[in-house]
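My current task is to audit a protein record that another person submitted. Alongside the sequence sits a line of tokens, each denoting a local backbone shape. Please read both lines and tell me whether the tokens look consistent with the sequence. Do not assume that whoever made the record got everything right. Thanks in advance; the entry in question is below.
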Amino acid sequence: MVSVVTWIAVCLAVGLLAFWLCFRWIPNDRIGVVEKWWSLAGSVPEGRILALGGEAGYRSDVLRGGLHFGYWRWQYAIHSVPLVTIPEGRIGYVFARDGEPLPPAQTLGRVVGCNNFQDARAFLGGPAGRAGQRGRQRAILREGVYAINPALFTVISDTGVFALRALLTRSEQAATAKWLEELQAVDGFSPVVVGKARPETPGADQTTGGDSIAIVTVHDGPSLAPGEIIAPTVGGDLADPDYHNNFQDPEAFLRAGGRRGRQHMALTDGTYFLNRWFATVEVIAKTVVPIGSVGVVVSYIGRTGADVSGTTFRHGERVAEGERGVWERTLGPGKYAFNTYSGNVVLVPTTNFVLHWVTGRSESHRYDESLKSIDLVTKDAYEPSLPLSVVVHIDYQRAPSVIQRFGDVQRLITQTLDPMLSAYFRDIAHKKTMLELLHDRDKIQAEARLELRDKFHEFDIECVDVLIGKPETGKDSGKIETLLDQLRERQLSVEQLETFERKRVAAEKMRLLAEAQAQASMQTNLTNARVEAQIAEQKGEAELAKARKSAEQMVVMAEAELSQSRRRAEQTVLLAEAASREKELEGRGESRRVMQVGLGEAAVQLKKIASYGDPRLYALSEVAAALSGSSQPLVPERLFVTGGAGDAPQSAQGLVGTLVALLVAEKSGFAPATVGAEDPLSRFADTMSARVIDTLSAEDPAATPKAGG
């Protein structure tokens, strides 16, 4: 019974020993690196570390998880190592201990198809010139789990170093530790994130506010051509067969002709998985051209171009875009992914900006921080300092010529404008006294504005305005203050005169105000009186209008009556004329008849008077007869007047006149002659008779008395 148990135990022990000697177990989360201690094929050839042909040494193939048969313990050593794990969003770097040696000009091993370094035989067994190379590799490992042979490859990640410790020498361990520190220092295990600063990321540029670009420096590939400082852009077009996708494909970059060194092409916003052994990055802020400015590009790279500024401009060259030099085209307001290592963007303000020549004062643009008040010496030996402000404008089209001429705006101000303005105002001060400098400030300012505009135009800038401040002196000098005190007293007297005049005007206005207030207090009475006056005036106007209407009516009636009266008067006149004519005709006939009778009676009477010899006697006789009871009136009914000159015929009035003349002659002592042929009275009677007859004959020949009648 004991022998059976012993036999079973021995069998089990032999079986277990055979199993232990022949089988190997690898957990699923690990891999087994096979080391062959001895082989009939001998050792690995010179220059090799891994055995690819069955030689003694480390084999290229690894054992995955599970039970493996044939790896005798007396011939093979199995090194169990964990799988290589790269966390999500992280990067792993690979160092190959075997492969083709790197040429002197090459930094990293080329990328070969080896299933992310999991196929060591493919890595090492490629044709010459295409097989993997020993050293640090250009290819990187992205997140994932990899069964990589640590005898050939050392993988460095932020979680640790995956390597076969037994193979690492002290120098290799020191180099690995150094690489780990360097990668951690540049955050090499994280992708490059451009446009978003991450506080948890060491080395990220927090000053850009997330608005940044990345400048790439490539550490592998051909060197730059002599005279070049920036590698030109290659393989940046998506349609290019060698498109390297922003340096993420090193082999494509090198095939496209990429050079090592700082690259002109910058990385813009995005996430990039870059091999930091192949390319490092420097995060910088984007170039911002603010509103009111333009950016003049001074390019350090590019081909040599033709000068577009002309032969007369001797202050440098302006070139087209993409050429080396000052670009003629400026950058307008905006943000640009401009590589500041390949050129410089000089900001030139295009809005009006002020420069202060005032000690201790400066604007936010800081162009005038080194400017001071201008020291002057006047004609009368005053030494004031003149504060000055100048408003300047630069045309955006002339900005390249300004930069081409001066380099930047600061140099323009300090090396040109400052000495020019200082000399100009010192020349003015030498010709004027201090008082003239104070009084003629506006005139000096206007003249300076005109002259400086011409001077500034020569430098492709524009002088908008010149503003002169109050001249000042040092604290120890009181000359200008004394002069100003005198001017203040003079002005005070002028202001006092003006004050007195205004007080007088104010008093007059107060009097007018008092009158207005008095009128306002009596405004009701004044209003009532004004209303009554207006009512009376309107009544008077109404009565006047009524009277005018009545007068017009009376005038019309009077004119009508006048016209009727005129018609009646005309009728009366016509009737009167007709009656008068009729009576005239009747009177003429009657008068002729009476005249004839009267003349006859007169002739008889004259004869009677002549018969008395004295008219008085005849008169007395007649009077006596009348008075004695005659019924005849004392004054005769008919009186005939004879005599008198003229064309009119003799009438009775002429006869009476003759009788009166006789009586007057009698009273004056006239003595008539004796009656006879020469008797005046007889002659008078005869003469009168003859005249009457002639008159009648002339008027009516038919009425003439016949001879002897």
Q: What stands out?
A: The CA atoms of residues 171 and 177 lie 10 Å apart. Residues 23-189 form one domain.
